Amino acid sequence: MNNAAEPPHTLTDPKELLLGYLDYYRLAVERKLDGLSDAELRSSRLPSGWTPLELVNHLVHMERRWLCWGFSAENVDGPWDDHDDGRWVVPREATAEQLVAVLHAGGERTRRIVESAGLSDRAGLGGRFRTAEECPTLIWTLFHVLQEYARHAGHLDIARELADGALGE
User: Which InterPro entries match (predicted)?
Assistant: First the structure.
C-alpha cells in the first residue's frame, strides 16, 4: 500500500492540486481499512449503523455519480446502488480489496475527465442533470467530491479507533 503524502505545498496548478488531494484521500481511506478483519469491515460500532465497507462503497458510487454520470453526462448503470431506503449498502460478496481497486479505478477515470476539461466548464446535460441551471462547474464538482472524501476519511478514523484503537494520520 502506498503512503502518499499530501500534494506539495508549492503546487499552484488548481487541477493538479485537486487531483492530488483526491488521490491522497483515496489512499487515506485504503489505509483505514488495512489490517481490519472481515468481521470488523462488515460491522458497525456507530449508532448510524454504517460499516467501513459500506462507506467505501458509498465513496465509489459518490465519485462516479458526480464525475461520470454528473459532469460527463455518461449513461451509467445503478448510480444509486450504494443506497437502499436511505441506508448505505454493499454487495455481500464484495471484499475490501475489490472495493479499494474500484475506488482507485474511479480515481483514474476522474483524472481523465478532469484532464480533458477546463475548471470553469459546466456539467453536461442528460446524465445526472436535466436542466442547464442544475449543471455545476468542474471546479465546484471537484471541491464537492474532495469534501466528501475528507469528511468520510475522518469518519473512518473514528470507526478504526473504535474497532482496534489504531489512530489515523
Answer: DinB/YfiT-like (IPR034660), MST-like (IPR007061)
Residues of the chain with confidence (pLDDT) below 50:
none
Where is 22: in which H helix or E strand? helix 14-33
Closest C-alpha among 89, 35, 87 to residue 60 = 89
CA–CA distance, 124 with 72 (Å, rounded to integer): 6
**CA proximity to 156, closest of 20, 38, 28:** 28
Domains of the chain: 42-164 (1.20.120.450)
- If one counts every other C-beta atom within 10 angstroms of the C-beta of residue 26, the result is 23
Helices (H) and strands (E) in the chain, counts: 5, 2
pLDDT, position 3: 63
- pLDDT of 121: 98
pLDDT of 84: 86
pTM over 0.85: yes
Dihedral of alpha carbons 150, 155, 156, 157, sign: positive
**Side chain identity, residue 25:** Y
- Give the integer Cα–Cα distance in Å for 7 and 27: 13
Q: Is residue 51 within 8 Å of residue 90, measured between CB atoms?
A: yes
DSSP 8-state class, residue 45? -
Q: Is the dihedral of CA 3, 45, 63, 98 positive or negative?
A: positive
